Amino acid sequence: MKAKQAAADKAVEFIKDGMVVGLGSGSTSYWAIRKLADRVQEGLEIRAVASSKSSEELAIQWGIPIVTFAEISVIDITIDGADEVDPDFNLIKGGGGALLREKILAASSHKFIVIIDESKLVNTLGEYPLPVEIVPFAAELTLKKLEALQCKPVIRKKDEKVFFTDNGNLIIDCKFKEIANPKEQSEILSSIPGVVDHGLFIQMTDTVIVGNDDGTTRFLNKRN
After folding, report:
1. What is the domain extent for residue 105?
2. What does the pLDDT look like over 132-141, one tens digit per residue?
3. Is the pLDDT of residue 53 over 80?
4. Which residues carry out catalysis?
């Protein structure tokens, strides 16, 4: 927890008065929202949009001004976590089930800051099951197409019930042996009818902050 909080606190230092801020989802983003709320209480003037209902509710509860997407044209900075990060800054995201909304925010941001602890760093993506968001209609057929990609697709459940995203879709957690070519895999997944989006974020960030258990942080250097 201390590592995640340290990375989140460092990321929030990038936020300046007047910015539009994208709020991520999940356990690491929780700390970023909390720190941002502290700065708002100290007088920081920002507007924010959230990638999930839970993050939006948390922001409102802590006094962060939330606006609609109709009120903005671009996001200055989005801060979010990741489930895996490779040396080229490709990511697996979606452990919390908000991958589609997270990707929309990241793609609409001038700067996308990824905050993680050391355990999220990998040489090759794929140890963490890749979340794929699909529409419920004909889900069985989409599952068969995913299975044909040499992975083990499992419908996500929460509290023993099928999990639905904020968009009303299913999450399929796909276990690959490894994802050696994330860009190619991303394109293949996106071409399957029924797939709304997936948790591969291909070089969408140039800033990864790693938090350590002793409360220190470091900026990761991209391999390429």
Report:
1. 2-120+202-214
2. 999 999 999 9
3. yes
4. 102
